[in-house]
Amino acid sequence: MKVLVVGGSKGIGKASVELLLEEGHEVIVASRSNNEIGHLPIEHIEVDVTDHDSLAALEDLDELQGVIYCPGSINLKPFHRLKAEDFQADFDLNVQGAIQVIQRTMPALKEGKGSVVLFSTVAVQQGMSFHASVAASKGALEGLTRSLAAEWAPTIRVNAIAPSLTDTSLAAGLLGNDKKREASAERHPLKEVGSPEDIARMAVHLIGDGGKWISGQVFGIDGGMSRLR
Ligand SMILES: NC(=O)c1ccc[n+]([C@@H]2O[C@H](COP(=O)([O-])OP(=O)(O)OC[C@H]3O[C@@H](n4cnc5c(N)ncnc54)[C@H](OP(=O)(O)O)[C@@H]3O)[C@@H](O)[C@H]2O)c1
Hints:
Elements: E1 2-6, H1 11-22, E2 26-31, E3 43-46, E4 66-69, H2 84-111, E5 115-119, H3 132-152, E6 157-163, H4 178-187, H5 196-207, E7 218-221
Parallel strand pairs: 1-2, 1-4, 2-3, 4-5, 5-6, 6-7
The chain binds NADP nicotinamide-adenine-dinucleotide phosphate.
């Protein structure tokens, strides 16, 4: 397979890149930086998904079997402190960025009979204080997942993964010391926070043959957080 990982330079995206390479696939990463992946045998395209002009480079790609879109935010604030700009910034990164990337890679995805994986959050299914902005954006992304899956069946499959707290730089503020880490693990029925690999395994499964009869779904990979008490 040839797979584009947008936001494959860190965290869950980087873990997905490593798994795809282990399985012998061709990988292209699009992100702002490549310090953590410079040593890997991949093509890197410099893009900022909030700068739509920079995404023109993605239009040159052909025959993609997968697009994994990872950029996202955890912008946690009490509702009364969230400004219109906070909601807009979260929407631009999580939703509009994904839309722009998918529109530009759509011909390549059609050519390659490809599949798309997007990232939501557990905070869409499970109400959580201070998550209003990110949950609003990720909820929109879940709607996009199902709409596109319907519109593009049977050619292109579209699914999403909704992680709970996962040990990446994005979550560093929430996992900054042993006490925070233990408290976070304790809140999960499976008593652990996620590792990037826990989430990446599902992304790679969905893109590949394992996902060939799956479309329009949102999978909670969340230590039981969204369903168990
Ligand atoms: N970690 C968690 O606890 C958690 C929980 C629930 C949901 N999620 C979701 O899972 C997804 C992946 O999260 P993660 O923890 O792996 O995040 P991460 O460690 O921050 O990685 C995000 C990736 O996206 C890229 N990126 C960010 N902004 C970008 C921009 N404007 N343009 C281009 N690339 C950009 C980053 O690369 P550059 O900086 O090099 O551009 C990086 O490769 C996100 O959508 C997040 O909302 C994560």
